Amino acid sequence: MTNKKIVITGGPSTGKTTIIKHLESIGEKCLHEISRQVTLEAQEQGVEQLFLEDPTLFSKKLLEGRVQQFIEAQELISSRIFLDRGIPDVLAYMNYANEINPPSFVEACKKHKYDTIFLLPPWEDIHETDNERYESFDQALQIHHHLYETYTSFGYDCIEVPFGKVDDRSNFIIENVL
C-alpha cells in the first residue's frame, strides 16, 4: 500500500511532540521522534550530550533511525503516516553545528522522499530547556532557518503551522495534507 508520509518538523520547543501525540489520540498513525532515545542511550554510556561531543556520530545514529522509520512508514497500512521529524532534519542540524554533510546522508535524503512537510516556527512562549533540550531561543531560531533551508534545498515546499491550541494546529495540518 502506498501511503502519504507527512513530516512535522521544527526547532526545539515548537510543539511537534504535542501535536504528534494529539494526532495519535484522534486515531492518526504516527511515528515518534528518536533523538531523545539516542541521547538517553549515550548518557547511559557516560556521554552527557552526544550531539555536542560528537555531532557526526549522533547524526549517524539519527540518520539510521530515521531511515528505519521511513521504511516502517512504508509498511504500515494507513493512507497517511505522520512523522515527528524527517531525514533532512539530520542535515539541518549538522549545518547548524557547522559539520560536513557526508555524501551518504545527502543520498538518504534524495532516496527517501516525503509527501508533505509541516514546519513549526519558533515559539518563545512555549520554549523551555531540559536535560535533552539545551538550545536557547536564539539557537532555536537558527535551527529553524537551517531546517527551512535544508528542506527547500531538496525541493520541498514547507507549510508553516500557525501558533495556537494543539487541536487548532492539528486541524490545520490535517486540512492541509497534500
From TrEMBL:
Residues of the NadR/Ttd14 AAA domain: 5-169
Protein's recorded name: ATPase
Taxonomic classification: Bacteria, Pseudomonadati, Bacteroidota, Flavobacteriia, Flavobacteriales
InterPro entries with a match to the protein in the record: NadR/Ttd14_AAA_dom (IPR038727), P-loop_NTPase (IPR027417)
Superkingdom per UniProt: Bacteria
